[in-house]
Structure formats: structure tokens, C-alpha cells
Predict the 3D structure of the following.
Amino acid sequence: MTASALFGTYARSDLDFDRGEGVWLETTDGRRFLDCGSGIAVNSLGHTHPHLVAALKAQAEKLWHVSNLYHMSGQERLGRRLTEATFADRVFFTNSGAEAMEAAIKTARRYHYANGNPDRYGIITFEGAFHGRTIATIAAGGQAKYLEGFGPKAPGFDQVPAMDLDALRAAIDPNTAAIAIEPIQGEGGIREIPADFLRQLRSICDAEGLLLIFDEIQTGVGRTGKLFAHEWAGVTPDLMAIAKGIGGGFPMGACLATEAAAAGMVPGTHGTTFGGNPLAMAVGNAVLDVVLEPGFLEAVQRKGLLLKQKLAAVVDAHPAVFQEVRGRGLMLGLKCTPPAGEVLAKARANGLLMVPAGDNVLRVMPPLIISDEEIAEAVARIDAAASALEQQMSKEGAVA
Ligand SMILES: *Cc1c(COP(=O)(O)O)cnc(C)c1O
């Protein structure tokens, strides 16, 4: 291979995929892989889903782009469907997750500004969070490894330990505008925030006049077996960022808001050239056609339980490799004892893809359309990978 022309930002595997169908991916040299990563929780309906392909092709032959200078019926339709299915009254479409979080942050600040409190701009977030890679969202995430070398951390973001209500209350001051949290930390290692904690956040926000922002970029659009993960806790936010699954592989995101929270976002306050592009809207609407079909989310819940049970058996069978399985729906994580990268490599050698995360966890996030047979196959491959790694570890142990 010649030297790459690309930025060196990714430690890429040299697997080179050429095509995909359902949960399966095939490399240019004809090797088949069972995709339990869905990109990174993006291909919610698997690869080349016929309904998405048809929707994108039909739109491609009609209209690609006009800009947000004009009425866009695809945006109106997807916006209406998202508000009808959620707490929200208003939607702003973006191209990515970070851009959706940026919109949520700006909307929260503008809400207080419009209500005569321009000094309320502070956003409180939680340790282990991930909200994106822009200058504002690395400050929101607060992780040193993402902030290092990029100048001063953008002001107005404070992190407190997750699940620490005392620290949270202590961090709230007259400048605080909002609290932002992922209902399940994804990049952080599939760490579920207990429902009770989310409910406490809601009541603190109500008592203090703060807005509650949920980052459902990874947890949303059916991933946990509800349309959005916060539904499990029975609380709703004022603002929510979504992306990943809503496009099923087409780049798009959105910021959802209540009428009150969005009130400050008047003409001229915010914008994007590409956000809400007709191609993206056609695919987003097609994803919702499938995810909102009666029984679809119940099937995700059932398959999530099946996969979690089977993975629990694999964890029990390989105590030297795995410590636990955690998560909800088809957003599961395997906590590893050896470096997760070694388990990942063995899984790849067995034709299965997962996604590494923080806390030495491997994320198991197959497309939501995975069948029971494919779940059994995925678990068998993870089991075989763990056995192979155990053998290698005992050989190395014998040598050492
Ligand atoms: C992926 C992700 C983001 C960032 O989304 P991009 O599309 O990569 O900008 C933000 N928050 C969460 C929870 C994510 O999983």
C-alpha cells in the first residue's frame, strides 16, 4: 500500500468493505463478516435495506438540494413525525451528531437569553460523557484526551461525576443554563444511567429553571427497544440531540425541542447549509417507516433480551476474558479483562465486528433487523473468539 493521503486521525483496520446486505458485510477480497457494530450504531436497518435504497434512489432522481431558503416538504414531514412520536414540538435538522449537540447547546443558551437571563450559559455534563468532536462538544464531554492540544477548553462547560447528586447540586450556580446527559453512555463504555437518576435530573431542572438536554445520538431511534432510551425512565427532556440511527447510514442528525425551549431560535439565530437536505430527509422518513411499524420496537426488545442472555452465558463460560455483559436492547457491552483490542482482533479473525469503547468494553450493537439465527451465529463467533484468546493466553502464560 502507498502512503495514505488522509489525515492520520484514525487508527484504521485495513479491512476494506465492498458491499453489505442486512447484517453481513463483504470485503473486496470476498471475506464475509457479521456486523455487530452497525458502523458505530448507525446502520439501524442493516446494509442496503430495500426500503431505504428505494427511497434514496427515488429522491436522487427528483431533487438533491435547494438550501434552507425554501420550504422543504421532506423536512416538514420528518419533523412532524418526530414531534408526533416524542415530547418535542420543534425540530432543527443537522448533518451530524456533534452539530445536533451544538444546536441543543445554542438553543439552551438562547432560551435563557430570550427570557432576560443572558448570563445563564453554563452547561453541566457528566464524567465519561461523549458529545462530539467540535470545539464546544469536546468541552461538553470534558475528556482530557479529546481536549489536549486544541487550545483553551471552551468556557461554560462543567463536568460532575455521574450519579453524584451532591456534586451536581454544588455545581449549579446563577450562570447555569442546562444539564446534558446520555441516558446510556456509549463511547464511555455502555454505562446505563439509572432511571431514578434521570428522574432526579428532571426535578432539579424544574426546580432551578434549567433545561434538560438528552444526548440520544447513539441510544435513539430504537437502539434500546424504545424509540428513545429516556422513555424507559418515564421522563422527557426539553432538548434532545439525535443522529446516527435516524439516517440508517446517510449522514444526518437533528435537535428536538419543546415549543418553550425553542422559542429563542428566531430567524437568523442559527443555520446550516446542508442540514435537512432532501436526500437525508427521504432516508430519515424511510427509516421511520420501518422503525414505527407496529411490533418493530417490541421485536428489538425481545431480540435484545435474547442476545443479552446468550452473551451472559458466554461471559460465564469465559471468566478470564469477560467480566460482564451490560446495556439495554441492542446496545450491549462486554466488559473485558485482557485489553479489549485483543478480543476484538480475535472476533474479527472469526468474522465478527464489534466496536471498542471506554472502560475496556466492546460494544455489541447489531442492526435492529438482526434475526434470531443471526444472533445465535454472532454469539457462537464471540464464544469462539474468546476460546481462541484463552488458548493464546495460556500458551503465553506457559512461556512466561
Ligand atoms: C457519535 C456521538 C456523538 C457525535 O456524533 P458525530 O456524528 O460523530 O458528530 C455525540 N454524542 C454521542 C452520544 C454519540 O454517540
